[in-house]
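*** Residues and shapes ***
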Amino acid sequence: MGFVVTTKSGQPDVEEVRCVRGDLTASCEVDEVLFDRKAIFSSGKFYVWSTRACERGMLCRSVPVGTFYCSRDDSGEVSSIACLRNLDASLDAMPDLEQVHALIHHYGPTLYFHPDEVYLPSSVSWFFNNGSLLYKDGMDKGVEIDSHGSVLPSGGWNDGEFWLDLPSEEKWHEFVKSGNIETAELYVHVKPASGGSFTDIAMWIFCPFNGPATIQVASFSFPLTAIGEHVGDWEHYTLRVSNFTGELWSVYYSEHSGGRWVDASELKFVDGNKPAVYASRNGHASFPHEGCYIQGSSTLGIGATNDCAKSDYSVDSSSRYRVVAAEYLGDVVVEPAWLQYMREWGPTVVYSSGSELEKILNNLPFFLRFSVESFVELFPTELYGEEGPTVPKEKDNWLGDER
């Protein structure tokens, strides 16, 4: 299950370890480096890694036990470390619906948007009710959508045959892009994690529009006019709660195509046990603290900026939420029709980025200039071409783990 460490010169006593039956275990892999420094041995470094189950997600039964792995090299290849496996498929430790509501009321974060944000969130029904349209490949005219999304094709996969778009009339087009935060709510997916020893409460927010990116090069900042824009934006954060103690263990902050878990001890709390979540300006990625986060090449100080700050634009997810899925509860939660729409929530966008980036390069000092090609390689690929985002249920972390 892991390595045993002693501060004495002799081997640990055999009474300090126990054998675990093989069918009660699952395979592990290394996760993060906990300790990394030159060892006293002449052969090189000494590493200590945290471990995690190889199979992770809503349908997996592997239970991590918090052990660690030691290595004399940095490959992190593990062949003998295991975790536990939950053979009880009943998931009796998972909360019922009443307990889910109690956990959300107790831990639901406040989501803060930047004071200069112009592309605010809205409810899905508000987006539908204000003229958003469903398009099908080969058809020039869009179809109006009812508040429940009943006309949307359901099931299947993202085959590119359908997509949503903003109203065709310019006045309503610009109106819907700005969102309506008064109607915004968090859409909650509750699922077992770590073999049912934890509950993951994934909270999704919808924004009708994602604004353009801002590029940072050293101390120079360049707002872009189009790159990064797309219709429809789904972002989320996830609360991981222990089913043994009911304690908030950690929060996952989704950051565009990636993200990270933050331990509860490192969170900023704004009201009792409710942590803060800061949405980046224009892009709405989630971060645990205020500040400017650079996505790109941190070593060169070049990337797309994620500016986060507290403002009056906020959504209290402990009260403004809706549980839309909890498969382990059976038919207790009825999923909304729009959650079954697995296609794109915005048209595909391909940016002609050369001219915008050329202007940036021409305004940089000579020692910071790059070719356009090498400059492009320093930024996330999603800045240069966007398929419309898909519904949360279509994403890998719906069934899988957050990382």
Remarks:
- The radius of gyration is 24 Å.
- Residues 111-212+229-348+388-399 form one domain.
